[in-house]
Amino acid sequence: ITGGSISIIFAYFADIIPKEQRTKYFGWVSAVVGAGTIIGPTLGGLLAKFGHSVPLYFGAFITLLNVLYGMKYMPESLDKNNRLKEITFVRLNPFAQLANILS
């Protein structure tokens, strides 16, 4: 459910944090991810006592809270000049991206 969150926060931090401080904040993000790796399965196991779908709904709820928080409190990290004007299908096509990488 939350697979893309880590990549998104690293990209966001890379945009908003000065280069001199990135290592510090990337370290904090990695520490929180590590703590989540320990706490998550434990919490999921405890929640599974109430039903096998409860951990799924709990994870979905936490993800929804993250999305709502991000939409309300996190400003756009890129200037309008640096944003993509449009997203074409070729940019979304993973095979086209793979062809670019391999060529």
TrEMBL record:
Keyword RNA-binding in annotation: no
Stretches assigned to the Major facilitator superfamily (MFS) profile domain: 1-103
Ranges in a coiled coil: none
Pfam families, alphabetized: MFS_1 (PF07690)
Regions that span the bilayer: 25-48, 54-71
Keyword Ribonucleoprotein on entry: no
Molecular function via GO: transmembrane transporter activity
Compartment(s): Cell membrane
Topology of the protein relative to the lipid bilayer: Multi-pass membrane protein
Primary localization: membrane
Entry-linked InterPro entries: MFS, MFS_dom, MFS_trans_sf, Tet-R_TetA/multi-R_MdtG-like
Protein name (record): TCR/Tet family MFS transporter
Species assigned in the record: Bacillus cereus
